[in-house]
Amino acid sequence: MTTVTELDAAATDAVAAAVAALAGRRIAILTGAGVSTDSGIPDYRGRGAPVRTPMTVEQFLSSDSARRRYWVGSHLGWKAFAAAEPNGGHQALAHLEARGLASGVVTQNVDGLHVRAGSRRVVELHGTMRRVFCTHCGQVFDRRDLAQRVEADNPWIQVPENVALGPDGDVLPESSDGFVVPACSVCGGMLKPDVVFFGEFIPAEKFREAEQLVQGSEALLIAGSSLVVNSGIRLLERARRRRLPVVIVNRGETRADSRATVKIDAGTSEVLRALADSLPSAS
Ligand SMILES: [Zn+2]
């Protein structure tokens, strides 16, 4: 469901300026929800996004009923979330890495679409919905296997064909009464998706990995993030301190437009494709 739109004159000029800033440099990439909207995953900070309050980690960990609500909504949304396909933007970034022009991707997204598109070095700052782990014994489970177990434990549950996905790939359930919450099959402990919840910190070693990626690069390209999340700003400041060129691609304002070398206000799928087409190969 990739939307193909022509770039307007201002965006075309901005892409040319971005190519001039990035050419001949190894590029670190930072992405946010905006790169996945063309894959059908909504950006809850973007324009026209439905107002939703994400569940906090405290609610999830401390309340049985909150966990039941979470798992019902997450299960109902899982099929649509898992079926989302990488778009032209994800593919363009994977292509830049394959050509040796990009050092890798740091992403705030939990959809796994960069990996699916073929990016090799991917730092998932906020984790991934594709993994679930036991908070007691640490056992890791593949979300697809878990979804089958949830279905077997709750045979009455109807997963709708067309759902309005929330930002975390969930759906607001009408009721969660009687839903059997999945538990660890090893020790019976509490399971948690391997994602950073609202109110939870990014693991320190994950952030260090992201810093190292930026540290080993000569430019920073930020796509589809309004930079509301502080980790993004911190990475941007690391790059600025070394006077690296910073290019921001985002529809609408970001918190750091004034700090960018070039800001391109347009959709990420078409801009990233245009950038990948225009950047000269490393000599
Ligand atoms: Zn366990």
How far the N terminus sits from the C terminus, by CA atoms, comes to: 35 Å
Question: How would you state the average pLDDT, rounded?
Answer: 90
Provide the spatial order of strands within the biggest beta sheet: 3-2-1-7-8-9
Overall shape:
elongated
Contiguous uncertain segments of 5+ residues: none
The helix/strand class is: alpha/beta
The helix tally amounts to 9
The overall strand count is: 9
Largest sheet: 6 strands, parallel
Plain-language structure description:
It is a single chain. With 283 residues, the protein is α/β, with parallel strands linked by helices. Helix content is 36%, strand content 15%. The strands form two sheets. The chain has a six-stranded parallel beta sheet, with helices on both faces. The chain has a three-stranded antiparallel beta sheet with strand order 5-4-6. Strand 4 and strand 5 form a beta hairpin. The chain is elongated, with a radius of gyration of 20 Å. The mean pLDDT is 90. The site of zinc ion (ZN) has 8 residues, from loops.
